[in-house]
Amino acid sequence: MTEVPRGIAQKSLLVFICVVLTGTTVGQQEQLPASTNVRIQTQSNQKAAEQLYLRLRSVGLDAGRVYQLRQASLDRNQLHISLDDGTIAFTQDADGRVTGAFFEGEGEILVVPPNQAERASMMLFTGAPILEERFETAYLRFNDDTFGALQPALRPLPEGKDFASKWNETAHNLAEWDALRLFVTFSRFLPSALAETPSPGPSSLNVTDDFLHARVQGITLGAFDAYYDSTANEQIAIAQQKRAQAINYYNVWASFSPPRAEIRRLAEEEQPDEIAIRSYRIRAQVNPPTTLHADASLQVEVFRGGARSLLFELSRFLKVSEVKVNGQPVELIQNQALEGSQLARRGNDILAVVFPRPVRAGQKMELTFSYAGDVLSEAGGGLLYVGARGIWYPNRGLAAADFDLQFQYPAGWTLLATGKRVREERPAEVFGSTREQDQASRWVTERPIPLAGFNLGRYTKAVAQAGNTTIETYAAAGVERSFPTVENQAVVVPTLPSVRPRPPQTVVLTQPPPSPARNAQAVANSAARAAEFFSQRFGPFPYSTLQLTQMPGPISQGWPGLVFLSSFAFLTPEERSHLHLSTAHEILNRQITAHETAHQWWGDLVFWRGYRDQWLFEGLANYCSLMLLESENPADFRLAMDKYREDLRRKNKAGAVLKDAGPVTLGVRLSSSEFPDGYEAISYGRGTWLFHMLRHILNDSWAADKQKRQAPNQDLEPFVHAVRKVRERYAGKPITTWQLLQVLAEDLPPSDRYEGRKSLDWFYEGWVNGTALPRFELQGVKMIPRGNSMAVTGTILQKDAPKELITSVPIYAAMPGERRVFLGRIFADGPETSFRLNAPPGLKRLLVDPEQTILTSSR
Q: What is residue 755's DSSP assignment?
């Protein structure tokens, strides 16, 4: 399995920042703390941003703002919250604003997801496609004038102190999880460094920055979260924390934009971030086995002005000591990631940089971060892992930038990094180091790349060549401590015939531990073979070198020009046999190196825009590696594809089928308490099958025509030609699923255009954004001789599928001598579709997809 270390863009991060995940449910009663001060007392040396943030994360209920409430509602597009009858207490002021409330009584929440994929996701977790849940309590957090909007439904409650006391600690504990999101809004109104002007009132808030979060205690579903965030790409989200197999999951029941915003999101080719990071210059001192000290300078250009604070992602184990803007220190808020969220499982934090005045569109500046901490992990066997504890430099998600990386590290270690290594430097020249034995190296990227990494270990080096690309493999003499041990074998040795017979002897054969260094050259050769195969089809290798370094654990990671390759990839065939893998697992294990090499094109050179598009690069990289396997061993290719099909049919303990975890477009949401391995099975398995289907949709007519014409074998197949165009148009850029399908649709042959249109919209709606594993049958087939050919009519049945599913189904003629002839493709549109085809004389019967090019429920 691959784990490609990609950050999440800011707009997606906002959803997870403000999620309420604590051990306190909304229905628990807590005692009022001893302190009931409404405001934090301002200290002369306390910074304004820190004051605001601390207040937002600690605010409790105001005993003077307790009301009876009847027939009120909070409506945010498709999120509807009804507060029918009960008591509500609002929070104390935070910088003169009311930002929250706690409600107890009778209420209801209604959410109607706008499409089938989100309704199916809601169904998986709640048992119904629409969320319509009564609740007893709700904690609310908002950045607008909700307090004022609810005034007509409020009646003062003179004896409100007891209610505030009952729920104050609950509100206080829940306040911190929305604090950073609210801080982003209210930091705009901090006093400017140019003049100590007062903060504007609530009416001055930016109307496009609308945030509401409700944590409700549902009567049947328990505690869950609902939010609306106008600044997020997907403005409405419903989610719940749940523990399974000793792991906390944050199950996202639904996440979507209102229909009009969804249409706009799909239509726009690019939505620029507030800023662009043009380049990084990082100077890092690495002290094995765990510690990193670094200064990172970012050259930044502002696209959209007005913000006073910007969010960055950085490992929770790296503490920032200082941030400067153009050499001047600025305030910093470093926030902890939320338990159960994707950020927490990757080990990353969020930090906010607060500017002395609002940033301006077109402004260019340098941000410098100084930080240190234990971000490396020591695994034994001369191996370290950089990134097990989060990303090691401040970033805002996937965006191409130039990197200039300089490192100081001890003698005896080998350091590899993204980019091209430039001249050797002495530590004293770069870092002013007095440690005589230290080394220094510098790495500069040859083109803008979306992310950068480095690895450190005690390695043996092997080299191979793929055209003009140098392939270097670095492996340690041993493996990590956690590597599976091989059991010793007891062997009975028979005795030779003799005058004095002796009983047989039992000898214990001790298996030597694996030594990846012994197999480093074979891995380098394998990567070179893969690089040559992909270069011939998808264009030149994107970088001058490819470095593959051993990494502890079963997971591999890809970076531009640098791959952290699992120790398992360095095993010899004999060493792998000791792991007792199934045949299919063994085949896929051998593909790790080719898969990671393919990521250099798909994932590094061309990368995804959002989490819904991440499957593209796992599916395409994996399928490219299997294309190489197919060219060498078609039988193993078929076993691998069958394994992916069978994985999708597996059931969890509750009897739910894994395919129903959702479509590939749910991305990281696929891994949940219901299906912990959902992301891997669907993004890799179904994703690989989707590209297999697309390949044959583009290729089958071409291949049949080529066979008739006896065209030369060097012709570039249409699928490869189309994918190569994707590389040419999107090198160094992000791409969406829609954009990739649009490029592939340009090469659709006339016979494979649904309703005559050069479009793959039908494929997106039914297959990419669906979960079906249909099966097909022919019915009422009639063969009518017509001179030198035959007319064949009949009906194709599409079963075990949604009635709106459209599938392009290849039909072959079974001819004498077990020969097959491709007749054409039929669009199975719904449960039954009539068809008419021309066939050669001598036809024995029709065959539906005999080459297994469609992801069906059975072979």
A: G
